[in-house]
């Protein structure tokens, strides 16, 4: 085989691989994940600041919760079914990260589930559209 024919074969092979790569090999393509959101949250006695959050269905969310209070706190995202969906416990002076990806639209309550904290006002909402 001449050098010219070999070059043409290599060029055609490279072009075919580029086309297949661009088409994800011709199989079912998976959409890229939704870009995430990060919220910085301060926990004190007895509030979260901020306490209202917005996100989209399927959008990964990261909460960075810093306890600026004098007692331990939790940050609990309640599911639409009323059950705990995600939880972080944050010691006094500490910071914890909680990741959550909502799978349905709705309003997700956020509470501190330590006795008396929710009732004292330590709650918020995550609105998902």
Give an account of the 3D structure.
The chain starts with a helix and ends with a strand. Residues 14-32 have low confidence and may be disordered. It has 1 helix and 9 strands. It has one helix spanning 3-22; strands at 37-44, 47-49, 52-55, 61-67, 73-78, 84-90, 95-100, 106-111, 123-128. It folds into 2 domains: 1-30; 37-128, Immunoglobulin-like (Sandwich), CATH 2.60.40.420. The strands form 2 sheets. Strands 3-9-8-5-6 form a 5-stranded mixed beta sheet, with no helix packed on it. A 4-stranded mixed beta sheet has the order 2-1-4-7, with no helix packed on it. It is globular. By secondary structure, it is an alpha+beta fold.
**Uncertain segments of ≥5 residues (pLDDT<50)?**
14-32
CATH class of the largest domain: Mainly Beta
Helical segment tally? 1
Count of the separate structural domains: 2
Please tag this protein with its features.
alpha+beta; five-stranded mixed β-sheet; four-stranded mixed β-sheet; 129 residues; 1 helix; 41% strand; Immunoglobulin-like
Quick take:
Helix content is 16%, strand content 41%.
Walk me through the topology:
Blueprint: H1 3-22, E1 37-44, E2 47-49, E3 52-55, E4 61-67, E5 73-78, E6 84-90, E7 95-100, E8 106-111, E9 123-128
